[in-house]
Amino acid sequence: MKVTIKKMGINGEGIGYIDRMPVFVPGALCGEEVEITVTEKNGRFAKGKLVRILRRSPKRVRPICSIQRRCGACPYMVCDYEEQLRFKQEDLRQSLIKYAHVDPRKIEPIRPSEKTLFYRNQCKLPCGMAEGELVNGMYMPNSNIFVPMETCFVHEKDLEIMRKRILKVLNRHQIRAYDWHQKRGLRFLILRGFHGKFQCTLVSGEEEFPSAMIEELLALEGMHSLWQSVQTQKKSAELFGPKMELLGGERYLHLQMGEITLPISPRSFFQLNTQQAVAMYACIAELVGDRNALVVEAYSGIGGISMALCRQAEEVIGIEIVKDAVLNARACARDNGIDNVQFLCADAADKLLYLSKKRSIDVLVVDPPRSGLDEAMLAVILRSKIKKVIYVSCNPSTLSKNLAVLQDRYDVGRILPFDMFPNTAKVETIVELKRR
Ligand SMILES: C[S@@+](CC[C@H](N)C(=O)[O-])C[C@H]1O[C@@H](n2cnc3c(N)ncnc32)[C@H](O)[C@@H]1O
């Protein structure tokens, strides 16, 4: 069938129409005319496989990555960066209008990432076998077909060099990809790097790695921290297993952000594009403003935002559910001599309810996971008397649905999109909300 692509979908696929029914076409770009085969159809939408491009977008470029189409992680790598930013801005605009009826003139131009390639400070890659060797790769979208990867062009360059060195050592010791029946082998290689130092976690079955291999890995230049995490559960959304063992080196990797040193454990979340994270934290600090008595940061992770705010507030309280992240954040405050910030390990809604009954909160910063704020959290915010909320979101749909609820008591102020993930369809947004 012939289809003209009218807009882009939230996962970076082109959307055209067959008899007014939307058809999603991965790999096609807005404005293109394409030939497709329909692979799936229900009453509401269809999915199509791109067969041929009949009329190319002038913005189409050749992707630097040879497995871009099969890997699926960088759908926008086939168009120039300006166009990628336009798609993201439009995705946010559509969501905010559709779900929250927000005036789109409030949306500021998206802030581009300085680096469009080699920007990710962490990789979390599945392991597989190719020609008898252990390799990293990705699963094709919506399938269990493993696509081996030579080089990933969005990982920082030194991260890639280290990943390849680690794989070489693992292969020398004949480590194999995970076998579901034997529950042995390597499932994921997780690697994070800052300032030439690396924290590596081998997610494996229940096995003991040879000590010679551990020594060789620890001897790699820059290897700062080596962990094993045992994960044998088949259907788990968690990459890490419940058991974590430090095989050697230091417990924490350290990130220097301005004057602050942040210690990070393998399981703690940290923003993947360090430069854009710094820019985003500075922007949050500007929106929070000076001379606040009490600022609460819910979903605080390792406390990067709280640390960026501690100078402008009398007191900052971070709330985070992952214990490792809370321990990192507390160590960070202690090591940096900051005594007006504290971190509580709890569910954000529960703890905010408690705090808002006891204290007068000036500003609340929320940076929830992709699923957005849950109903309990929305109810606590609406019932509270918090004057200002700064909402940091990595998902325009959940952000917009949450804003629709919060607008009952809050007016939307500035809306600032950031491009944290060039070549993907993801967009990060900061929204300022003022209590009416
Ligand atoms: C998008 S991250 C934000 C981290 C942090 N603001 C930063 O910039 O590094 C979301 C965080 O929310 C935490 N989280 C998820 N559910 C939570 C809950 N119910 N209560 C508190 N924290 C939660 C996650 O562990 C994660 O650290």
TrEMBL record:
<dbReference type="InterPro" id="IPR030390">
    <property type="entry name" value="MeTrfase_TrmA_AS"/>
</dbReference>
<feature type="binding site">
    <location>
        <position position="271"/>
    </location>
    <ligand>
        <name>S-adenosyl-L-methionine</name>
    </ligand>
</feature>
<dbReference type="InterPro" id="IPR002792">
    <property type="entry name" value="TRAM_dom"/>
</dbReference>
<feature type="binding site">
    <location>
        <position position="320"/>
    </location>
    <ligand>
        <name>S-adenosyl-L-methionine</name>
    </ligand>
</feature>
<dbReference type="GO" id="GO:0032259">
    <property type="term" value="P:methylation"/>
</dbReference>
<dbReference type="InterPro" id="IPR010280">
    <property type="entry name" value="U5_MeTrfase_fam"/>
</dbReference>
<comment type="similarity">
    <text>Belongs to the class I-like SAM-binding methyltransferase superfamily. RNA M5U methyltransferase family.</text>
</comment>
<protein>
    <submittedName>
        <fullName>23S rRNA (Uracil(1939)-C(5))-methyltransferase RlmD</fullName>
        <ecNumber>2.1.1.190</ecNumber>
    </submittedName>
</protein>
<keyword id="KW-0808">Transferase</keyword>
<keyword id="KW-0949">S-adenosyl-L-methionine</keyword>
<dbReference type="Pfam" id="PF01938">
    <property type="entry name" value="TRAM"/>
</dbReference>
<feature type="binding site">
    <location>
        <position position="299"/>
    </location>
    <ligand>
        <name>S-adenosyl-L-methionine</name>
    </ligand>
</feature>
<keyword id="KW-0489">Methyltransferase</keyword>
<feature type="domain" description="TRAM">
    <location>
        <begin position="1"/>
        <end position="52"/>
    </location>
</feature>
<feature type="binding site">
    <location>
        <position position="367"/>
    </location>
    <ligand>
        <name>S-adenosyl-L-methionine</name>
    </ligand>
</feature>
<feature type="active site">
    <location>
        <position position="394"/>
    </location>
</feature>
<dbReference type="GO" id="GO:0008168">
    <property type="term" value="F:methyltransferase activity"/>
</dbReference>
<feature type="active site" description="Nucleophile">
    <location>
        <position position="394"/>
    </location>
</feature>
<dbReference type="InterPro" id="IPR029063">
    <property type="entry name" value="SAM-dependent_MTases_sf"/>
</dbReference>
<dbReference type="InterPro" id="IPR012340">
    <property type="entry name" value="NA-bd_OB-fold"/>
</dbReference>
<dbReference type="Pfam" id="PF05958">
    <property type="entry name" value="tRNA_U5-meth_tr"/>
</dbReference>
